């Protein structure tokens, strides 16, 4: 595999994404809005808490908010992957691309990188804002910097990249079945539903989103990601694209 | 459903080979198979020394071919220059090579002034020319053109056609898919007529000859009894001599007409015009395609 080819395709797509306002809004606003909202809620909870309230009283809130950065990583790739794959299909630019000596794997990797890089950067930026703000708020309560903690490290270094990859893989599969970017984006948006389910399970105390649970969830999702990788690479073959993609 | 079968042909190096056929004849499928975009279910195809369908050879074939698909497929949001540059990078051309070839093709095709314009803002003709330039950016040995002048206005179509003729002078091997008979006749060295199966192959003249019903019409300055006798002696097929007009069936006018003309002149006839009527490439094409249907 020639990684340079993948990088050329990724940079082409990243440049194209820069001019798509709706995608930029999703990349910037989603993590920014959620990190500011969560920070404000934590701040409000601390300021309105009764004297003697300890850190453990905020734990459920913090676990839930941390998990959202894994959910964000599943939301953002959807419009990017939809645009970069279905967009090419709509513009009919896939055929000349497929006629070059670039392999299917190189194209798929390039498209995946174009969705992965901004997603991870946006998720990390949002998480950095959230962590800095919460540290500032909680320092007066706990007397030390609460973040980065083990849960956030697992989420940012393990869970977020895995959910991002899962989302990209599902979007590749969805893109092979739809004819326009909007449908792909809407269907791709459903990808984050299972993560919302996990979040709700955490909220209603079915599971605790602590480090151990997050590691288990990461392992399960990684197994799913590996299975989906094979499905998406089978879907993304030039013959399939030219003859089977609607 | 069988898209294409029983197709056997050979294209020589430096030849412009036309693939004529109605919509759904399998022209695009054949090009896609030869460009290693889709696999064949049976049979064998080779480009240069490489086997179509072999994984390793497919990559080598893609390096040595250029494809202009029926839909130009440009990146509409990218500039004309960047469209070419992107493909140059994918063909591992160095920055200086890309700069040189981008400028060369954009100037050659009259697009240099539009180099910074978004491809989406270009006219259809300009887009088509840009797509041809994109296919040539890596100096391919073989160029596949799938309906390159379809949907173009006459002026743009002429520009593209003239450019193909320029490429012909450069001895590029060109495989031209078209359903424009005039274009095929003007550009191609040889033509194949395809309608799911290969119906015929040859030069335009050879294909025209396959159709019966061609007629030579000779107009004379005045009626002449000696000419009438001379024509009768020649035992021409379906001879019709009335007044100053003589008409007879021919299969190969270039071979059959000179002796007739010579006989008329020797008999004292004064020839005003000699025309061959009837069978054209269009008739040959229609006959072959209808026969298949």
Task: Describe it.
With 246 residues, chain A is mainly alpha-helical. In chain A, 80% of the residues lie in helices and 0% in strands. Chain A has one domain (3-243). Chain A has helices at residues 3-18, 21-47, 59-75, 77-91, 94-98, 104-142, 150-175, 181-189, 193-203, 211-235, 238-243. By secondary structure, chain B is α/β, with parallel strands linked by helices. Chain B has 11 helices and 12 strands. The chains are: A mainly alpha (246), B alpha/beta (293). Chain A binds chain B through residues 4-5, 8-9, 12, 15-16, 19, 91-103, 238-239, 242-243, and chain B through 32, 35, 37-39, 59-60, 62-63, 65, 67-69, 71-78, 86-87, 89-92, 131, 134-135.
Shape call of chain B: elongated
Q: Quick one: biggest sheet of chain A?
A: none
CATH superfamily of the largest domain in chain B: P-loop containing nucleotide triphosphate hydrolases
Question: Do you know the CATH topology of the largest domain in chain B?
Answer: Rossmann fold
Give the neighbour order of strands across the main sheet of chain B.
4-5-6-1-7-8
Instruction: Based on the coordinates given, report the CATH architecture of the largest domain in chain B.
Output: 3-Layer(aba) Sandwich
SSE-based structural type of chain B: alpha/beta
Main β sheet profile of chain B: 6 strands, mixed
Count of DSSP helices of chain B?
11
Helix content of chain B: 40-55%
Order of helices and strands of chain A: HHHHHHHHHHH
Mean pLDDT of chain B: 88
The helix tally of chain A amounts to 11
Instruction: Please state the CA-atom Rg of chain A, rounded to the nearest Å.
Output: 20 Å
Quaternary organisation: heterodimer
Low-confidence residue ranges of chain B: none
Average pLDDT of chain A works out at 87
Which tags fit this structure?
heterodimer, A: 246 residues, mainly alpha, 0% strand, B: 293 residues, alpha/beta, Rossmann fold, Alpha-Beta Plaits, 6-stranded mixed beta sheet, 4-stranded antiparallel beta sheet, 11 helices, 12 strands, 41% helix, 20% strand, elongated
């Amino acid at each position: 595999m020639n990684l340079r080819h993948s990088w050329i395709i990724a940079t082409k797509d990243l440049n194209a994404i820069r001019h798509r306002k709706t995608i930029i809004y999703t990349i910037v606003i989603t993590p920014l809005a959620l990190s500011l909202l969560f920070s404000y809620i934590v701040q409000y909870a601390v300021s309105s808490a009764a004297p003697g309230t300890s850190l453990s009283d905020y734990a459920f809130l913090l676990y839930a908010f941390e998990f959202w950065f894994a959910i964000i990583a599943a939301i953002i790739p959807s419009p990017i992957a939809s645009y970069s794959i279905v967009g090419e299909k709509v513009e009919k630019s896939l055929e000349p691309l497929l006629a070059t000596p670039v392999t299917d794997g190189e194209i798929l990797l390039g498209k995946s990188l174009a969705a992965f890089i901004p997603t991870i950067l946006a998720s990390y930026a949002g998480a950095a804002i959230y962590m800095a703000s919460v540290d500032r708020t909680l320092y007066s309560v706990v007397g030390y910097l609460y973040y980065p903690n083990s849960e956030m490290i697992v989420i940012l270094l393990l869970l977020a990249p895995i959910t991002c990859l899962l989302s990209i893989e599902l979007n590749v599969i969805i893109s092979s079945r739809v004819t326009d970017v909007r449908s792909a984006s809407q269907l791709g948006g459903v990808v984050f539903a299972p993560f919302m389910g996990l979040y709700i399970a955490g909220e209603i105390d079915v599971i605790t989103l602590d480090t151990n649970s997050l590691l288990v969830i990461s392992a399960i999702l990684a197994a799913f990601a590996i299975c989906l990788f094979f499905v998406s690479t089978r879907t993304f073959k030039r013959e399939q694209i030219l003859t089977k993609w609607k | 459903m069988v898209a294409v079968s029983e197709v056997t042909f050979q294209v020589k190096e430096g030849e412009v080979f036309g693939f004529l056929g109605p919509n759904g004849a399998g022209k695009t499928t054949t090009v896609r198979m030869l460009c290693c975009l889709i696999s064949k279910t049976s049979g064998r195809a080779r480009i240069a020394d490489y086997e179509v369908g072999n994984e390793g050879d497919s990559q080598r074939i893609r390096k040595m071919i250029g494809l202009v698909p029926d839909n130009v497929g440009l990146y509409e949001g990218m500039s004309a220059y960047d469209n070419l540059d992107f493909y140059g990078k994918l063909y591992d051309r160095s920055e200086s090579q890309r700069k040189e070839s981008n400028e060369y093709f954009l100037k050659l095709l009259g697009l240099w002034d539009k180099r910074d314009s978004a491809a989406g803002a270009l006219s259809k003709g300009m887009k088509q020319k840009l797509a041809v330039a994109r296919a040539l950016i890596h100096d391919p040995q073989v160029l596949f053109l799938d309906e390159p002048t379809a949907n173009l206005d006459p002026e743009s179509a002429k520009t593209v056609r003239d450019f193909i003729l320029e490429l012909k002078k450069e001895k590029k091997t060109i495989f031209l898919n078209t359903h424009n008979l005039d274009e095929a006749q003007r550009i191609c060295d040889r033509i194949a007529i395809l309608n799911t199966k290969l119906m015929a192959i040859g030069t335009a003249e050879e294909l025209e000859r396959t159709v019966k019903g061609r007629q030579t019409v000779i107009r004379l300055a005045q009626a002449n009894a000696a000419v009438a006798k001379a024509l009768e002696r020649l035992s021409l097929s379906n001879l019709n001599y009335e007044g100053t007009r003589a008409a007879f069936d021919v299969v190969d006018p270039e071979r059959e007409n000179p002796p007739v003309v010579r006989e008329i002149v020797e008999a004292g006839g004064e020839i005003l015009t000699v025309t061959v009527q009837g069978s054209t490439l269009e008739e040959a094409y229609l006959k072959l395609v209808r026969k298949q249907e």
